[in-house]
Design goal:
Layout: H1 2-12, H2 16-39, H3 44-59, H4 65-80, H5 89-108, H6 117-149, H7 155-178
Length: about 180
């Protein structure tokens, strides 16, 4: 019981930027839960469990709780969503990204010290880059799923190749700029 009181005191004395980073992790947990709710049948016990695990991640980000949340969330998605590709997969993936990155940054900085602005900018840029790659992979997998099902004729294949080509071009330009 003493440990829970210590965690609560740690959370209450945390800096505003640290609380904001922890809030991002909770926002990610809520985003994933909403995506799961929209994607498949599920049940209220499952949704409540995800929200409670997300709150525990916020309370204790420097333990294995973020891993437990992500594994539980992936298992819940796998068990409740029957389709191979679903439009709600994008917000679900972005939610898991926010849980992971928010918990990792919260665990890396002591709660009472403010997170430096340079760290927040670098963190936001990296999360933005991974989000952009996630959107590209989501679109490509959606196009491939549509091609596999035969829906849309050749259009999904063309769109998928265009997304792949644009991603490759963007990566090559980025690499050329850093060298």
């Amino acid at each position: 019981m003493r440990e829970l009181l210590d965690l609560w005191a740690d959370l209450r004395s945390a800096s505003r930027t640290h609380l904001a980073v922890r809030g991002v992790a909770m926002l990610g947990a809520l985003l994933f839960t909403l995506a799961l709710l929209l994607a498949g049948p599920g049940n209220p016990v499952l949704w409540t469990g995800l929200v409670l695990l997300g709150a525990l991640v916020v309370l204790h980000p420097h333990t294995l709780l973020p891993v437990v949340f992500i594994l539980f969330a992936v298992g819940a998605w796998w068990a409740n969503v029957e389709q191979v590709w679903h439009w709600a997969l994008l917000p679900a993936a972005l939610g898991l990204l926010l849980v992971h990155s928010g918990a990792a940054l919260a665990a890396a900085v002591p709660a009472q010290s403010p997170v430096p602005d340079s760290v927040l900018r670098r963190w936001a840029a990296r999360v933005g880059l991974v989000s952009a790659v996630t959107v590209a992979v989501w679109a490509l997998s959606g196009a491939l799923a549509a091609v596999q099902s035969g829906a849309g004729g050749a259009l999904p294949g063309i769109v998928g190749l265009a997304v792949l080509a644009a991603s490759l071009l963007g990566y090559l330009r980025w690499r050329a700029g850093t060298e």
